[in-house]
């Protein structure tokens, strides 16, 4: 695992990424689980209720924006934080689900549904997100390709509690705009909706998944699952080890992977609170933007994986 955890063990924040000289762990675990439990393949395929769930959330959020259009800023901010943020973050994770074509068997229908789900978010990102997110799965941690990992600029600047607090508040914008600077690709209702997106992606319980998924708190683990109640509102993205092991399984069935093959997940670190993860990230002086696993590109890491 290279230099994993060396700085953390000394109580000092890492000044470079943790470098791994092995392939990402999910492909090998996927093969092991499928060999032992082939029935997991029965879970592959779209969620037939995905369209209905997305349509309900989009309609509710747009209706809320309509009734708030003449309200004062304080009321708009309060409703955005305690209500709209949950809906917009739900839609953000619906777009994540659609990037894996888990609503329809025909990919283009997922793309159009993603554009529809994007409407209340206020920032067009659904089409671009799919391109970068699929690379995150195929090339997890690969230097220069996986745009889920913070930049060196973030690592050099975000080095104390205050800077980490500001970074958490703005993390959705770092997440969204980082690829445009580091790996640009050809480009393929107002205040309430923008605020719902902004606060829902910052210092907010649901935004804890951005940190919990791959930030290295345990020096020998690079992907972490969350088993808590917010999975009900986030397309079960908390089952993140299970998701990376089986990207073709929709969120509403990911819990079944753990039920069928518990021995592969019960003994690795996981979380029960995303809010606690945010607190840990800010307060732990050994953890920062560099607390991510990176690896150099290899022939095996660039091979298309059959079960993705």
From TrEMBL:
The keyword Oxidoreductase applies. GO terms for molecular function: sphingolipid delta-4 desaturase activity. It comes from the Eukaryota. It catalyses: an N-acylsphinganine + 2 Fe(II)-[cytochrome b5] + O2 + 2 H(+) = an N-acylsphing-4-enine + 2 Fe(III)-[cytochrome b5] + 2 H2O. GO terms for cellular component: endoplasmic reticulum membrane. It is an enzyme of class 1 (oxidoreductase). Residues 12-50 form the Sphingolipid delta4-desaturase N-terminal domain. Its EC number is 1.14.19.17. It is found in: Endoplasmic reticulum membrane; Membrane. Its main location: endoplasmic reticulum. InterPro entries: DES1/DES2, FA_desaturase_dom, Sphingolipid_d4-desaturase_N. The chain crosses the membrane at residues 76-96, 108-129, 157-177, 189-211. The keyword Lipid metabolism applies. GO terms for biological process: ceramide biosynthetic process. Keywords: Endoplasmic reticulum, Lipid metabolism, Membrane, Oxidoreductase, Transmembrane, Transmembrane helix. It is a multi-pass membrane protein. Belongs to the fatty acid desaturase type 1 family. DEGS subfamily. Sphingolipid-delta-4-desaturase required for the biosynthesis of delta-4-unsaturated sphingolipids and derivatives. This is Sphingolipid delta(4)-desaturase DES1-like. It comes from Stephania cephalantha.
